[in-house]
Amino acid sequence: LSLYTATLGLFFVGVDSGMLDPVRMMSMLGSATDGSMETKDTLDYVVEWMKHHTWSQGMAPFIERNPHFANFAVSWIAVKFTEPLRLPVSLYITPGVARYIGKQPAPDEEEEQETEENQTTT
Fold this sequence. Notes:
The protein is mostly helical and 122 residues long. The chain has seven helices and no strands. The protein has helices at residues 2-17, 22-28, 42-51, 60-65, 67-80, 83-100, 109-121. The longest helix is centred in the last third of the chain and has 18 residues, at 83-100. It is rod-shaped. The relative contact order is 0.12.
């Protein structure tokens, strides 16, 4: 969850500050309409897309008044495409983080018996 939140936060800050170009990111996903490289900001791109779909037309005015929601939407979509990369990273770092915060796996019964036997023989 923390890796997901960090990735989403980084994408949102990047898009919201203008460091990441959302139109270029979305065109990489194949959602460019005509192949032209006209200059748009996130708000124009998202509102235009919403107006082309009947289920989202009613929300387009709300997004126009609150542009940060458009930036968040683009960031969230971009983060969804990072899932194949985040999964192995999460699986790799989870045991180390668990050890760091003091969560050790419970020992098996056999290991407990061996430990008890070793203590009684010495």
